[in-house]
UniProtKB/TrEMBL annotation:
Limits of the NAD(P)-binding domain: 8-191
GO MF, one example: oxidoreductase activity, acting on the CH-NH group of donors, NAD or NADP as acceptor
Listed name of the protein: NAD(P)-dependent oxidoreductase
Organism of derivation: Bianquea renquensis
One protein family per Pfam: NAD_binding_10
SUPFAM superfamilies reported in the protein's UniProt record: NAD(P)-binding Rossmann-fold domains
Residue ranges the record marks as coiled coil: none
Length: 209
């Protein structure tokens, strides 16, 4: 299996590359600068400059793009649109590192995590930007996408437990009532989905067991 990880130098990207390489997959790190991952193959190019020819031949493309500043938040939508446009009509699967703010908190799917009174206000613009990108992604019937939301507490320095619960559109809690997952365990779930998953045109979520 050939996998491209876009924005591979990021916190999530590095761990996803490491997990994929550890399983013996053929991994290409797509980076703007020098490769900081364990991938042996590198495509040095900006996400927005990628072409259909660049991604031809891959089985799975993992989008680990992330940005947090106010002026760049719209790029969550524009970057995803660009990737969808160049993958349109192909069999290449697009797996997206998503956010937890857009997960539903009721069975009617009318309220999301970021609507909550206790949602940290500093993360609200990011959650809204990622939620908008997901809404737009849902309109793409021409791309084999999967949007993977982490748990609410997404820990860059969290431990690798090797265990997780696969959820759906709603915020899922573990047996201790927690919504938490480490970047390490998220990477496991991502590569599991890349190799075994069939959640085409669906949003799924993961939480530590």
């Amino acid at each position: 299996m050939k996998i491209a990880v876009i924005c591979a130098n990021g916190k999530a990207g590095k761990r996803i590359v490491k997990e994929a390489v550890s399983r013996g997959l053929d991994v290409t790190a797509v980076v703007r600068g020098e490769n900081q991952t364990v991938a042996q193959k590198v495509l040095k190019k900006d996400l927005f400059d990628l072409t259909a020819a660049d991604l031809k031949g891959f089985d799975v493309v993992i989008d680990a793009f992330g940005t947090w500043t106010e002026d760049t938040l719209p790029q969550h939508s524009t970057s995803l649109k660009h990737l969808c446009d160049i993958l349109s009509g192909t069999n290449i699967r697009l797996l997206v590192v998503g956010g937890a703010g857009s997960l539903y908190v009721n069975p009617e799917h009318t309220a999301v995590v970021s609507d909550g009174a206790d949602f940290p206000p500093q993360f609200l613009p990011l959650a809204k930007a990622q939620g908008k990108a997901l809404s737009e992604l849902r309109q793409r019937g021409d791309v084999k996408w999967t949007f993977i939301s982490p748990a609410g507490d997404f820990r860059a320095d969290g431990e690798r437990t090797g265990k997780y619960i696969l959820g759906g559109e709603e915020l899922t809690l573990n047996s201790r009532g927690e919504s938490i997952i480490s970047y390490e365990d998220y990477a496991i779930a991502m590569i599991d989905e890349a190799t075994n998953g069939d959640n085409i045109q669906k949003r799924i979520s993961v939480v530590r067991e």
